[in-house]
Write a structure and sequence with these properties.
The chain is of the alpha+beta class and about 270 residues long. It has two domains: about 200 residues, BirA Bifunctional Protein, domain 2; about 50 residues, SH3 type barrels (Roll). About 30% of the residues lie in helices and about 30% in strands. It is built from seven helices and twelve strands. The strands form two sheets. Strands 1-2-3-7-6-5-4 form a seven-stranded mixed sheet, sandwiched between helices. Strands 11-10-9-8-12 form a five-stranded antiparallel sheet, covered by helices on one side. Strand 1, helix 2 and strand 2 form a beta-alpha-beta unit. Helix 4 packs across helix 5 and helix 4 crosses helix 6. The chain is globular and about 55 Å long.
């Protein structure tokens, strides 16, 4: 198979740049934006050799995994652009749900997969990390903002030694190819990007995200630099911050950090 856009993405005018192998789809997308590309356009590969996750961690996609980045150039502030990551999580979750229904029925002795969205940027499957999302933005000519949303999905293999245990679709018994997943993702992106509507629809995105939130109502510990915030995952607010209800009953807003739930919260807080 080769990469193709879904029918909705083609109708919406999205472009596509597919690579047999590339260092980083995010880096390529931002380089094109600096050179004048205004998108919207997808950059995809099944083999990424120099990808990055949050906090500059390596995100290597061996052949068969899906590394995809969408470039959108828009008239929004960086703070508003940051909320687009929640629409990305919803897009991937929708694509996975759509493609997994029949595959789940063929998982011998196993029930349907449960996908969930872990703040701020992970997609989980059966409690393990299946995908990560990295959003980057730069100002470009015309006082506009080039926003690149990278979505890396473990299709055939998962990295080891990650802070959150990782898995792949293949390990879970779901036989979906990277090309098939990308076509569904590109169509789902059209839907949720439209709902997001340059940030004007984030209230709707927030509601949909919370319905799929991993660890909502559970014990959580967030490492933010040298400090650790502990309590219960209460919600996310109107700007996408994680709201923790502490043992004292106070509500603390967290903008970034390493998040640990349940039993792992004790380890993360140690």
């Amino acid at each position: 198979m080769t990469f193709t856009l879904g029918s909705k993405a083609r109708s919406a005018g999205y472009g596509l740049a597919a690579f047999d192998q590339i260092g980083s789809t995010n880096a390529e997308a931002m380089s094109r934006a600096r050179d004048g590309e205004r998108g919207p356009v997808w950059f995809v590969t099944t083999e990424q050799t120099a990808g990055r996750g949050r906090r500059q961690r390596a995100w290597i996609a061996p052949r068969g995994n899906l590394a995809s980045s969408i470039l959108e150039v828009m008239d929004v502030s960086p703070g508003v652009a940051a909320t687009l990551g929640f629409a990305a999580g919803l897009s991937l979750e929708r694509a996975l749900q759509k493609l997994s229904i029949e595959a789940n029925l063929r998982r011998a002795g196993a029930g349907p997969l449960r996908y969930a969205l872990k703040w701020p940027n992970d997609v989980m499957a059966d409690g393990q990390k299946l995908a990560g999302i990295l959003l980057e933005a730069e100002a470009v000519a015309g006082n506009r903002l080039a926003v690149v949303v990278g979505i890396g999905t473990n299709v055939i293999a998962a990295p080891e030694g990650t802070p959150t245990p990782a898995t792949s679709l293949a390990a879970l018994g779901v036989q979906i190819g990277a090309e098939e997943l990308f076509a569904a993702l590109s169509d789902a992106w059209v839907e949720f990007h439209g709902i997001w509507d340059n940030g004007r629809g984030f209230a709707d995105i927030r509601k949909l995200w919370l319905e799929r939130a991993f660890g909502l109502g559970e014990r959580v510990a967030i490492q933010t630099g040298a400090a650790t915030v502990e309590g219960t995952f209460d919600t996310i607010d109107e700007s996408g911050c994680l709201i923790v209800r502490t043992a004292e009953g106070k509500r603390a807003a967290v903008t970034a950090g390493e998040v640990y739930f349940g039993a792992a919260a004790s380890v993360g807080a140690a």
